[in-house]
Amino acid sequence: MGGEDVRGPALMFGAILLFGVLDANSKLLSGAHPLAQVLTVRFAVLLLIVLLLRRLAPGLMGSLATRHPRLNAARAVVMLGSACFFFLAFRDLPLVEGYLVFFTAPLIVLLASAILLRERVSALAWAWCAVGFGGVALALAPGFSGGVGRGPVMGYVYALLGTACYSAVFILNRQLRNEAGIGRVLFWPALLGFLVMTPFGIAEWQPPTALALAQMLGAGVAVAAATVMVAEAFRHAPAARLAPISYTGMIWSIAFDALFWGHAPALVTLAGAGLVVLACVMSERAARG
């Protein structure tokens, strides 16, 4: 197998690992620093990286101009919502439980595609959709057996809202598929996030330690690097080959939960997670016919 054959999957694996590091990093920071402060620094770094890369590698970033300002504005809003809600979710929940809710995103996209975009969805895809949501219910059942989950109920609400926002990003990406470019995907959400979060970040600023500041700065670098890696992965491999790799995020969530917080998921949680991943993969295959 040649290097070109493995480049796409390797880039995707790396991107998913970076996103996992980003989520664990957010959870570590959330104990001492407010959301607005962390995101202000993240978006500032992201803006600087985009502008620097535009100067050093303009071909990589592409144009920032758009023929669809409303769609790009909507994408920036839901990307900001996703960042905010997942920060709050991971503050309150074990990573693996937040990821369980997050991995329903392909199923939500399937539902939204049928309702909003009027795309035809096969009965088999709907069946797998039901299996996926059943897997989430199974996985979270131990935590809710006493009436509350392992984290506050609002943690699950935040995770669901973040997943809804992330799903909306996919829907908007489909509508903007003829206007490709990493620059647009990074710049406009970073600009909106910086403008919205900065006043609150300044008002709520907590003096960070050197380590915490490095974590905040590193988050912006991680977002930029992971986004570029995903885009490059799709240049070297088809979506059908790359999509299942995204579910390796569940492995990283379990590993980071154990490493930093000593949390080990129950066997039923792992079984439910397996059902969710299987349902997502099979529903995507069914949707492609």
Automatic annotation (TrEMBL):
<feature type="transmembrane region" description="Helical">
    <location>
        <begin position="209"/>
        <end position="230"/>
    </location>
</feature>
<dbReference type="InterPro" id="IPR037185">
    <property type="entry name" value="EmrE-like"/>
</dbReference>
<comment type="similarity">
    <text>Belongs to the drug/metabolite transporter (DMT) superfamily. 10 TMS drug/metabolite exporter (DME) (TC 2.A.7.3) family.</text>
</comment>
<feature type="transmembrane region" description="Helical">
    <location>
        <begin position="242"/>
        <end position="261"/>
    </location>
</feature>
<feature type="domain" description="EamA">
    <location>
        <begin position="154"/>
        <end position="282"/>
    </location>
</feature>
<protein>
    <submittedName>
        <fullName>DMT family transporter</fullName>
    </submittedName>
</protein>
<feature type="transmembrane region" description="Helical">
    <location>
        <begin position="34"/>
        <end position="53"/>
    </location>
</feature>
<dbReference type="InterPro" id="IPR000620">
    <property type="entry name" value="EamA_dom"/>
</dbReference>
<dbReference type="Pfam" id="PF00892">
    <property type="entry name" value="EamA"/>
</dbReference>
<keyword id="KW-0472">Membrane</keyword>
<keyword id="KW-1133">Transmembrane helix</keyword>
<feature type="transmembrane region" description="Helical">
    <location>
        <begin position="73"/>
        <end position="90"/>
    </location>
</feature>
<feature type="transmembrane region" description="Helical">
    <location>
        <begin position="267"/>
        <end position="287"/>
    </location>
</feature>
<feature type="transmembrane region" description="Helical">
    <location>
        <begin position="124"/>
        <end position="144"/>
    </location>
</feature>
<keyword id="KW-0812">Transmembrane</keyword>
<feature type="transmembrane region" description="Helical">
    <location>
        <begin position="96"/>
        <end position="117"/>
    </location>
</feature>
<feature type="transmembrane region" description="Helical">
    <location>
        <begin position="156"/>
        <end position="173"/>
    </location>
</feature>
<feature type="transmembrane region" description="Helical">
    <location>
        <begin position="185"/>
        <end position="203"/>
    </location>
</feature>
<dbReference type="GO" id="GO:0016020">
    <property type="term" value="C:membrane"/>
</dbReference>
